[in-house]
Amino acid sequence: MLCMWSSSEAPQGITKIECINPIVGHSFVPPDKMFRRLEKPIHKQSVLIAPEEYIQIFKSEETVISVIS
To answer: Could you tell me if residue 45 is inside a domain?
Structure first.
């Protein structure tokens, strides 16, 4: 995608593009912490079919606020 952009739409002065990807496991934003904590209980289940099963796991780890009436 970057190659296509640089060859067709990039300004003429751009000669180099540096793409930096985050290092796996080194993100400390709150959503990443939450998903890391939820990962273990979800993987312990062999099969999760109903959405309610996920909600129960979420409730065991976090405060769940339902926006569904």
So the answer is: yes
pTM: 0.43
* Residue-number span of the structural domain to which 58 is assigned: 23-69
d(CA 38, CA 21): 24
- Phi, psi (deg, nearest 5) at residue 60: -70, -20
Residue 60 CA from chain centroid, whole number? 20
Residue 27: helix, strand or coil by DSSP?
coil
Cα distance between residue 10 and residue 33, in whole Å: 37
In the prediction, which pLDDT does 25 show? 65
Rounded CA separation 47/43 (Å):
9
Cα gap 66→69, rounded to integer Å: 8
Average pLDDT, the chain: 80
The residue behind tokens 């273990």 is 40
